[in-house]
What does this fold into?
Amino acid sequence: MQGSIGEWLDMGGYAAYVWPVYGIAFAVLIGAFIHSLRSLRGEEAALDNLLRTIQLEREPDGEA
Amino acid sequence: MKLSRMLLPWAGGLTLLLGIAGLWFALFDSPPDYQQGETVRIMYVHVPAAWMSLFCYVVMAISAGVGLIWKHPVADVAAKGSAPIGAAFTIVTLISGAFWGKPMWGKWWVWDARLTAELVLLFLYLGYIALIHAFDDPKRGLKAGAVLALVGLINVPIIKFSVDWWTTMHQPASVVKMGGPAIDASMMVPLLLMAFAFKAYYIYVLLLRMRAEVTAGKVRALRLRQAHGAV
It folds into this structure.
C-alpha cells in the first residue's frame, strides 16, 4: 500500500465507482444471509411450538 | 441434517477468513491495472460473483433435474435453496458490472450479448422462484420450476462463450483459457480468494436454507397430521 488513507479512499479518482460496488455486494450478501438465518429460526420456532402443543394435547389422556 | 450441522461452522468460518483475506488483497495489497487503474478492484467482486451466478444455476438446474426424475426430496430442497443465492450473485454481477462499465465504457448498460444473457439469467432465477411458489401443491410447483431450470441451462454456455461468439464490449476470459491465465499473480491472488470466499458463502447459506426447508417440511407434515386428527 502506498500513500495516505485519503489517497486510498480516492481510488485514483474512481471512488464513486469502486466503493459502491463493495458496499452493494456486501449489503446484498449480508441481506441474503440474514434472510436465510431468520427463516431457519422461524421454522425451528414453529416446529417447537407445534411439538409443544401436541405434547399438551396428549398429556390429559396420559399418552405422553 | 447431521452432515449440515457438521459443515455449517466450517463453511461459515471459511467464508469469513477467505473474505477478509480476499478483501485485504483486493483493496490494499494488489496493484492498480495499467489500463484500468483502480477500477480493476471492481473485478474482485464482479468476476467471482459472475462465476457464482453460473455455478449456483448449474447446481440448481441439476438438483431440480434429479428431483424431477428420481423424486429425491433432498435434491428439490437443494434446488430451492440455491435459487435465491444465485439470484443474489446475479444481482451483484449486474450492478458491479454497471459500476465498472460506466467509467471504462462510458455506459452503465449496453445491450450486448453477455450482459443481456446475464440479465436473462436473473429472470430465469426469478421465474424459477415464482413458479415453485405458484401452486397450492408444492410438488407441482417444483416440477414446473425444474422444467424451466433445465430449459434455462442452455443460457449458461451462452453466457460463458458469448464473448468469443459475438463482437462485444465485454473483455474476453483471462483466467480460464487455453494456454493458462493471462493475469498476474498479484491480481490472481485476490481474485481466487474472493472466489473461494463466495463459494464458502454459498455453501453456508445453502445449508441454512436447506435446514430451514427441511424444518418447514416437518412443520407442514405435523400440521397435516394434526388436522386429520392423527396426532
